[in-house]
Amino acid sequence: MMIPDLSPENSVLLVIDVINSCAEAEFEDPARNIHYGKIRRMVPALSEFMTAYKSLGGRIILTTTVPWQEAHLPENINELYRNNEEARYWSQDPSGRAELFYQIPTEGALVFAKNSYDAFTNEELLHALEEMHTRYIIVAGIFGDGCVMASICGGFSKGYRLVMAKDLIETTDDEGRQMLQEQLKRRTWPLMYGTTVESGQILEALCKK
After folding, report:
1. Which of 133, 141, 182, 204 has the highest Cβ tally under 10 A?
2. Whole-prediction pTM value?
3. Residues contacting 126, CB < 8 A, separation 6+
4. What pLDDT sits at residue 1?
5. Which strands, in side-by-side order, build the sheet including 110-114?
6. 6 found inside a domain
7. Which helix (H) or strand (E) holds 164?
8. Does residue 27 belong to any structural domain of this protein?
9. How many structural domains compose the chain?
10. Which residues of the chain have pLDDT under 70?
């Protein structure tokens, strides 16, 4: 698959929700088959990629979330959660630890908290992308079948060219979610939203600039 003409100057790395509530073992929910083993195994490679991308002069944006509780979420999400127990994902953590980043480098990155699945609903993030004259957005993070997918759709609808680092996008260990994510990586993203390749290929393309 062809790598677009991206460079550190025209691209931004968007890392979605690599936070404790989506990765740390204590936030797993065994009763609902929510386990983060595959996510935790992915994070070291993501951290290495972030460091390498930054060393080339790349800019990084990190998203976290507002406290994922009724008082902080829009009514459409709350209504969904009230009406569908399987969809319900309200946080029970009042400490603020849930929203902290999980084992990734944060120095020099711009940070935005979102109250929706789609990162591009945050107007401050959109303004930052405009100020940086962003053309390409490299996407990584969690969950591939959730907030990453929503953000891919949102970013594409805003006119951005997307490059998905497919080995740096992960979801829960659940077999059904893993199968769905694999289909997104193999067919949906490359056919509808943008280049979908291994992170090493992205670095190789950037190093040639």
Report:
1. 141
2. 0.97
3. 120, 158
4. 66
5. 110-114, 59-65, 11-16, 136-142, 161-170, 194-197
6. no
7. strand 161-170
8. yes
9. 1
10. 1-2, 209
